[in-house]
Amino acid sequence: MALSVNMTISVPPETVEKLNDRAREHGMSRSAYVRHLINQAPDSPFETPEVQLTDEPPAEA
């Protein structure tokens, strides 16, 4: 990603908590996690990521 632009959205505190928890479970920053979710959405106009995130954290190696 060559250039990033900051974007501000408002969400309830419990949503932020869930995002933080899920991002941590997947070993990602909150920003990276949200970007990934946007890209993997079924109707996303963006390139679909190779790895699809699920509700389950990745298995320990």
UniProtKB/TrEMBL annotation:
Entry's Gene Ontology BP terms: regulation of DNA-templated transcription
SUPFAM superfamilies in alphabetical order: Ribbon-helix-helix
Domain Ribbon-helix-helix protein CopG: 8-40
Name of one Pfam family that matches: RHH_1
InterPro entries: Arc_rbn_hlx_hlx, CopG, Ribbon_hlx_hlx
Region (Disordered): 40-61
Protein name, entry field: CopG family transcriptional regulator
